[in-house]
């Protein structure tokens, strides 16, 4: 079976890749909104945090940590349990807050970290 790419396929792929690359993701939108609301310093700090997270995730993937977790049922079970516990914690925090931290006086954004 020949795997020759036609010019039409290449053009379609290139156009789709460009659109995906140029569109802002949730990280970029958060950096933008935080920078507008809190200033350049906060936006840069959040952007650096996002970049550090991406680098860490990529490094762990390159080292094969995901393959090790997939190969070990115990490690995978612990990871699932930790993820579930964290989701329960986030849910409990959301229930306890009852939205009181969403806005302060005159509609300004609260400084309370997530």
From TrEMBL:
Membrane topology reported for the UniProt record: Multi-pass membrane protein
Single GO MF annotation: amino acid transmembrane transporter activity
The keyword S-adenosyl-L-methionine is assigned to this record: no
Keyword Metal-binding applies: no
Key words, A-Z: Cell membrane, Membrane, Transmembrane, Transmembrane helix
Pfam families: LysE
UniProt-listed InterPro entries: LeuE-type
Transmembrane segments: 12-34, 46-69, 75-92
GO annotation, cellular component aspect: plasma membrane
Places the protein is found: Cell membrane
Alphabetical list of PANTHER family matching this protein: ARGININE EXPORTER PROTEIN ARGO, ARGININE EXPORTER PROTEIN ARGO-RELATED
Name of the protein: LysE family translocator
Organism: Anopheles coluzzii
């Amino acid at each position: 079976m020949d795997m020759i790419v036609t010019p039409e396929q290449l053009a379609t792929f290139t156009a789709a890749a460009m659109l995906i690359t140029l569109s802002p993701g949730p990280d970029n939108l958060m950096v933008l909104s935080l920078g507008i609301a809190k200033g350049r310093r906060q936006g840069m700090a959040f952007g650096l945090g996002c970049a550090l997270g991406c680098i860490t995730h990529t490094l762990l993937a390159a080292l094969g940590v995901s393959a090790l977790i997939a190969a070990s049922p115990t490690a995978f079970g612990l990871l699932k349990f930790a993820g579930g516990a964290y989701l329960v914690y986030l849910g409990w925090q959301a229930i306890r807050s009852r939205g009181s931290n969403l806005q302060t006086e005159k509609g300004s954004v609260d400084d309370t970290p997530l």
